[in-house]
Write a structure and sequence with these properties.
55% of the residues lie in helices and 17% in strands. It is of the alpha+beta class. Strands 1, 3, 6, 8 and 9 form a 5-stranded antiparallel sheet that branches. Strands 2-7-4-5 form a 4-stranded antiparallel sheet. A hairpin with a 4-residue loop joins β8 and β9. α3 runs parallel beside α10, α6 packs antiparallel against α7 and α8 packs antiparallel against α9. The radius of gyration is 28 Å and the shape is elongated.
Amino acid sequence: MAISRSFLRLLLISLFVSFAFAEIRYTEIRSDAHPIIPIDEFGFTHTGRLELNVSKFALSDPSPNLDLSKIGFFLCTRDTCTQVIQQLEDGKITCPLDAKLVKVVCTFKSLNGKSFFDTVGQVTHADQYTLVFANCLNQIKVSMKVRSAMYNLDGKENCRDYLSAGKTILPRVYFLLSLVYFILAGVWINVLYKKRLTVFKIHFFMLAVVVLKAFNLLCEAEDKSYIKRTGSAHGWDVLFYIFSFLKGITLFTLIVLIGTGWSFLKPYLQDKEKKVLMIVIPLQVVANIAQVVIDETGPYGHDWITWKQVFLLVDVVCCCAVLFPIVWSIKNLREAARTDGKAAVNLMKLTLFRQYYIVVICYIYFTRVVVYALETITSYRYLWTSVVAGELATLAFYVFTGYKFRPEAHNPYFAIDDEEEEAAAEQLKLEDEFEL
């Protein structure tokens, strides 16, 4: 059945994509005959509320004999979705609105010839719900504008909280993390000042990355704070996207530049290294555009799945591309260690780049795979934990990079004794080829 297939698609999206949008959402449906149209998802507490405003409602067949009780909105959880699908396939019901397991918000039977209506519903059972529009009239196309607002009432004053139950503390989390990055930027500026004689261009670039990350988190904190209180970002989402775009490009560029050894090992980039940058930077532009579309349209929006696939593909390509310069640097250092007679120095550089290679892989794996797994398996009440895990991993990566590649004074008269040099040379000879 078309209805059960549509319900199954809804269930699959909700299972494999963790989201809990909270803004006051405006949805326009134009001549749509789909039996199931998901609108939004939200994590309610026992004081949940749903405001629904429908206007300009029209059907492709204005016949007065249509059973408008077969058209309406309902709320369902992931568990009830599964059970309703089974009931539809078993033929026990013909429309999700007939299922006792779902919470029917309203049907269009009460319109009485009008093209608009408003309703407010209470949700007293805490869970993560999806607001769904159902049209069980075959071949009938529906057009309308929908304004949906889902929120929880908090405190004695019953203040509205438009953030999902599992994300209500995110404004404070992002704000505290932004303070941490501003402090890191201050510490880095102090390091650059104290060791200004040995500072390279790459160190100023690292400072720019940290500052952009701090502003990115600050804008995200304000974005979520305004949404929490009013249901709208009030323009902070634009600033967030701008800084997110700049942060993404500069971070990947920094990883590439460090991987090439630019500035602190050599003053120029080779052609193949420039080509990597020419690939990574445009891909990051595409990734950020995809991210904006994904965030603004929601998981049930038109072409959302396509944009999500584009984002994942581009992100994977970027993550793989930034590893190549590090691999090239490791190979170059191995070759130099065999020819220039500076075994100890080259061994230290080789060890550093090997460590960085491993850390970059761990960072990419954790932020792309482990965090996604946390989002998928974590209860809706604790969705903030995946955000914190991802941000702490990013912070650890920034600190590691800054510490390992900090400016240091290299004394040209520093002498490595013969024993150290011989030991390093022997280790380079005996060790196996580094597996990449």
